[in-house]
Amino acid sequence: MGISVDKALGVHQYALAMQVERSRVIAGNLANVDTPGYLARDYDFKTALKDVASGVANMSSQDRLPDADFSSDLRYRVPMQPSEDGNTSELGVEQTQFASNAMDFQTSLTFLNLTLGGIRKAIEGQ
Amino acid sequence: MAFNSIYEIAGSAMRAQTVRLNTVASNLANADSVAGSEQKAYHALKPVFATLYQSMDVSGGQTGPMLGNATVRVADLVQSDRNVDRRYEPNNPIADGKGFVYYSNVNVVEEMADMMSASRTFQSAADVITRTNSMQQSLLRLGQS
């Protein structure tokens, strides 16, 4: 019986890639917070990860994980207060999203670290 | 992993806000400048920001504005077209024939608000860099311990 590291790591490696992508998009929103007419964007994290999660759950131990592609889940942000210059990037909202995304990243990393620790223990037989 | 482009995006924001702070500094410095004619009077400078999308390849080979880095750049510096302040000061050595001098059209209150907004956005870009840095460092430690 072999250990499928891909399967053991599960959806968290995708979550990690997704969170880096997402922080890039939100960094763009934050950079353009004073640009007239800029339309803020964000990923639809739930649907993006749901597809991957069902794929991971159904795979056999021989399967390789497919490459993640979240590009179709990029959406435009609906502003809380529309501004006169058409900019939909709101400093407070974007900063909150960025901070919580960074926190989610750390959470995914912790899960991955724990899993890797478990696999190492299994290999070393302790 | 798109860490490098995050630094690029935050860097572009910091560059743009620095230009904005520079214009605020020149405007405030010249708030009380006097000139002998309306044309020569100091007109407040305002930067115009624009989004610069840099499309990038992803694993699927798709390229398009949807996947672009949204960096910001200073598209232009325009002069404020608000009326300059004309005052009657016949004793002023640079007054024109009718005894008028022309003060700049800088609105100090507006400039102060602009300065606060610029430094706030600059700060948030700096925070993005700090946080991205710590994300990258903890990713490097993955699997250790």
From TrEMBL, chain A:
Where does the record say this protein resides?
Bacterial flagellum basal body
Primary location: other
Which keywords does the record carry? Bacterial flagellum, Cell projection, Cilium, Flagellum
Ranges for domain Flagellar basal body rod protein N-terminal: 11-38
A single GO BP = bacterial-type flagellum-dependent cell motility
Would the keyword Secreted be found if you checked this record's keyword annotation?
no
Q: Which is a Gene Ontology cellular component entry for this protein?
A: bacterial-type flagellum basal body, rod
Decide whether keyword RNA-binding is in the record: no
Its job: Structural component of flagellum, the bacterial motility apparatus. Part of the rod structure of flagellar basal body.
Similarity remark: Belongs to the flagella basal body rod proteins family.
Assembly, per entry: The basal body constitutes a major portion of the flagellar organelle and consists of a number of rings mounted on a central rod.
Query: What is the protein name for this chain?
Result: Flagellar basal body rod protein FlgB
Organism, per UniProt? Answer: Gallaecimonas pentaromativorans
Q: What is the lineage of its organism?
A: Bacteria, Pseudomonadati, Pseudomonadota, Gammaproteobacteria, Enterobacterales
UniProtKB/TrEMBL annotation, chain B:
Keyword Signal in annotation: no
Q: Which residues form the Flagellar basal body rod protein N-terminal domain?
A: 9-36
BP terms from Gene Ontology:
bacterial-type flagellum-dependent swarming motility
**Domain Flagellar basal-body/hook protein C-terminal residues, every copy:** 99-142
The residue ranges crossing the membrane are none
The species this protein belongs to is Gallaecimonas pentaromativorans
Q: Which Pfam families match?
A: Flg_bb_rod, Flg_bbr_C
For this UniProt entry, what is the primary localization, expressed as one broad class? other
The family annotation for this protein states: Belongs to the flagella basal body rod proteins family.
Q: Where in the cell is it found?
A: Bacterial flagellum basal body
Q: Which InterPro entries match?
A: Flag_bb_rod_N, Flg_bb/hook_C_dom, FlgC
Subunit comment: The basal body constitutes a major portion of the flagellar organelle and consists of four rings (L,P,S, and M) mounted on a central rod. The rod consists of about 26 subunits of FlgG in the distal portion, and FlgB, FlgC and FlgF are thought to build up the proximal portion of the rod with about 6 subunits each.
Q: Highest taxon of the source?
A: Bacteria
A Gene Ontology cellular component where this protein is annotated is: bacterial-type flagellum basal body, rod
Protein name from the UniProt record: Flagellar basal-body rod protein FlgC
Keywords in alphabetical order, please. Bacterial flagellum, Cell projection, Cilium, Flagellum
Keyword Membrane listed? The answer is no
